[in-house]
Amino acid sequence: MHRMAAFLSGISIVCFAASYGVALACEASRLVFRSGVRGAVMVFFAAAGLVAHTLFLGWRAAASGTLPLSSPFDWYLLAAWVLAVAYLWLALANPKTPIGLFLLPVILGLVGAATVASREPFLHDAASLFWGRVHGAFHLVWSVSVVLGAIAGSMWLLQAWRLTVKSSSAGGLRLPSLERLEHVTSRTPAIAAWAATAGFASGLILNAVNHRRGLMETVPWTDPVVMRMGLVVAWLIVASQWAAMARRRPGGGRVMAWLSLASLVVMAGSIAWGLAGTTRHGRPAESPLGVADAEVVR
Amino acid sequence: MMLALVGATHRTVPLALRERLAFTAEQAADALARFRDRFPGREGVLLSTCNRVEFYAAGEAEVAAPPVEELLSFLAECRGLEAAALAPVLSREHDEAVVRHLFSVAAGLDSMVLGEPQILSQVKQAWTIAQDNRTAGPLTAGMFQAALRTAKRVATETALGRERVSIPSVAVAEFASSVFERFDDKRILLIGAGKMAAETLRYLRAAGGRDVVIVNRTASRADDLAARLGAKPASFDELERELAAADLVVSTTGSSEPVVSLDLFDRAEAHREGRPLVVLDLAVPRDFDPRVGERPGVWLSCVDDLAEACDANRRSRQRELPRALAIVDEETSRFMGDMHHRSTAPVIEQLRAGWSETGEAELERLFRRLPHLDDRDRDEIRQSFDRYAAKMLHPPLASLRSESHAGPPHGLLDALKRLFNLKD
Prior knowledge:
The structure holds 2 protein chains of 2 kinds. Chain A has 2 domains: 1-120; 122-298, no CATH class. Chain A has helices at residues 2-9, 13-28, 38-64, 72-93, 99-116, 126-164, 178-185, 188-212, 224-246, 252-276. Chain A is mainly alpha-helical. The radius of gyration of chain A is 20 Å and the shape is flat. Chain B has helices at residues 15-21, 25-38, 68-78, 83-86, 95-106, 118-132, 138-157, 167-179, 195-206, 219-229, 239-245, 262-269, 303-343, 345-369, 375-404, 410-419; strands at residues 3-9, 43-48, 52-58, 91-94, 187-191, 211-215, 232-234, 248-251, 277-281, 298-302. Chain B has a 6-stranded parallel beta sheet, with helices on both faces. A 4-stranded antiparallel beta sheet of chain B has the order 2-3-1-4, with helices on both faces. In chain B, helix 5 crosses helix 7 (138-157) and helix 7 runs antiparallel to helix 13. Chain B is elongated and about 110 Å long. The model of chain B has no long low-confidence stretch (mean pLDDT 87). The chains are: A mainly alpha, B alpha/beta. At the A-B interface, helix 6, helix 7 and helix 10 of A face helix 7, helix 8, strand 10 and helix 13 of B.
């Protein structure tokens, strides 16, 4: 038992980041040469990374006695984990599609963001724990939806460009059909908009609960986190409506692809704003203001 | 000589002669039965396709493969032709060249369309016919299995067979499939009822296309083709309505004027509800006004676009050729090394038997002098002797294996025979 604990506690971020890095290198090598064993090597490293990633999050959850959503650090790693599961599934279902070239850099980016994010857990009691989990889970859903939508959108634009220039292959890449990619880009804006709205609403409830119990100061409407989330929610609602209208119009696929990419840009802008601004979000009542934590969408 | 080949391919023999030389499956079986009677103990495989007729023969030791001239006469005789007429055009190969040729053929490197995959199933079929007619044997088995392995390696390690090279196949498999994930829920409209339309529809059917409508100026031709291909005919007057309903259009008319003008398309577009449209304009002159391709949601490819893609794919295949040939070379060397090593088996067998015999005699003598040894001690001593013999034999056998990769190790075999007093 002690040995197992020692083993689990020895798993570091480097373990799974390195595995994902090798899988990305294998994906990139598709552009250079063909290989009969590359697919197996790629899946092996991605799966090994995912196992290490899962054990790492599981160990943290077991050690803290809560879900791995209790700090910005955990949140980033959980988002990366969800995308890694999606990657492994897509890589197995579509072995000829270089999905990892688009998805693995995002996963590695999230893991990288986790390393600079705060590991300090948010304060909670029994009531705020529930709303905190709801809040964090909805934010996870919309963020992952935006990332997946943007990846599908970028592949759509690349595939459309290839068709426009009448190229039979784009540097050896086999991309999914426009129809399949539109299937993703037409759905992710609505999912992201609903989840972001629910996340925002649950955040307001969480704020009220925490304030009533004296756990935290009230986060004002002018707080950067609240403002940027408000803008993100507004954008995602507009984007989802825009995408729904475009779907029935000629050239709607292109509009949906750009909207998906724009949502990613809005999300990235929100992250940058969060890193630069000061916030009371997630701070205890006694905590001095000033330094912004690296928490972004929670 | 262990391996021999006599053959005619599209490179060297004109179609008229290849047609006369070609074997049906029944004729091939009959020829192999005759081969078995004429060359008992030898192995033979007959590969006959529309681009080649090749006879592979093999034999070992005293029953070596038949001389190629005899093989040529046999082939001519089977098809009722004069051997003298065939002699100048048929190619003849021996041993390593036979292996290299078969590996190249199986990998599609000797095909008319470089890298085409159908030849592999024809090679497999030829091998099956030889097995059924009991002319296959260990040598040809090893060679054909290695040929299949080579073809698989070329297919997986190079992009040789990956890109398509005919206009209809590129149109469907690369352009239409890049837009649509599936075709079974799409309305396909064929404008024109020519050969190209039928050929393209064949690929669309293979990709799952079911709902097909054919529109042609001459209604009877549309009816004929529709009946032949299981499609629905429609009047040419209904073109606008069909265009509005279609997801994919293949146009192949011989019209000198555009069949689908921008105005006509715009009228149809108003009823399309924004659905994307793939247009494969395979007609010359073009059937679609090129400006249609600039409309949002329309993916228009004309014959020149597709021909460019085909040429690019051909060039891509050519670029892969050196890598494919390197694989063929590697597999040929490997197979020849194994085959040469196989020829050393009798000497190795004698060598091992000699050591074993001497060892047994020594052990018997030892056990007689040491009667107090129990079974366990005896087994220990016996195992030591065996290990000693294996270690002593390892260097010469390893040298023999290593030498086999460069060719038949005659010198080393002679040396071993003389040193260890082995008999032929």
